[in-house]
Design a protein that fits this description.
It holds the Pfam family Peptidase_A17. By secondary structure, this protein is α/β, with parallel strands linked by helices. 33% of the residues lie in helices and 22% in strands. The chain is built from seven helices and seven strands; from the N terminus they run ββαβββαβααβααα. It has a five-stranded mixed beta sheet with strand order 5-4-3-6-7.
């Protein structure tokens, strides 16, 4: 029987068994140091969040893009979150919308901690269907879609949502899964798409 933990995730026996080997493998990530806190750097701060879904899971990842007064730009991974797809079959566009709602919650939480409410906020998805829903009024859709749209639009009313090609979406790494050995040397996951350095867009 599945049990719900304090973080709100549903953990089955298979999922718990899969996680048993994780603690012993974190040493493989030892070459990566923590990202500096925002207060350690001076300059313009711009959060960028990415969302993605597969039939197995949906995921989000947030990066902080900082630009110093001299124009030096650095992009660092700030937070990520993944949830297992429901056992009840849900269409992929709806899972992509769930990923967008998860991203909205994660970014709102980061805002509350860092006090970055006034920073311009850019959120990315590779689902044109989910983006079309997000840009519409919740009343235009049935309950499942409308509830998630309402959450997204209420929690982050000023966010700019953009389309990103799937090959440039780092959240894809989490929604589809990566081996630890692949994760260590995966620049897209650790540093986001290279075009984020120049703000030129995909």
């Amino acid at each position: 029987m599945a049990a719900k933990d304090r973080l709100g995730y549903v953990s089955s026996r298979r999922q718990r068994e899969a996680m048993d080997g994780v603690p012993g493998r974190t040493a493989e990530l030892g070459g990566y140091s923590r990202a500096p806190l925002v207060g350690e750097r001076q300059g313009r701060l711009q959060p960028h969040g990415f969302a993605d879904a597969s039939e197995r899971a949906y995921a989000t990842v947030v990066y902080l893009r900082t630009e110093s007064s001299s124009g030096e730009v650095e992009v660092r991974l700030a937070a990520a979150k993944t949830k297992v797809a429901p056992l009840k079959q849900v269409t992929l566009p709806r899972l992509e919308l769930c990923a967008a709602a998860l991203l909205a919650r994660l970014v709102a939480h980061i805002h509350s901690i860092l006090g970055t409410r006034k920073a311009s906020l850019h959120l990315w998805s590779d689902s044109t269907v989910a983006l079309g829903w997000i840009r519409a009024h919740p009343a235009s859709w049935k309950t499942y879609v409308a509830n998630r749209l309402s959450e997204i639009q209420t929690s982050l009313p000023d966010a700019c949502w953009h389309h990103v090609p799937g090959r440039d979406n780092p959240a894809d790494c989490a929604s589809r899964g990566l081996a630890f050995t692949d994760l260590v040397n995966h620049p897209l996951w650790w540093h986001a798409p290279s075009w984020l350095q120049s703000e030129s867009g995909p």
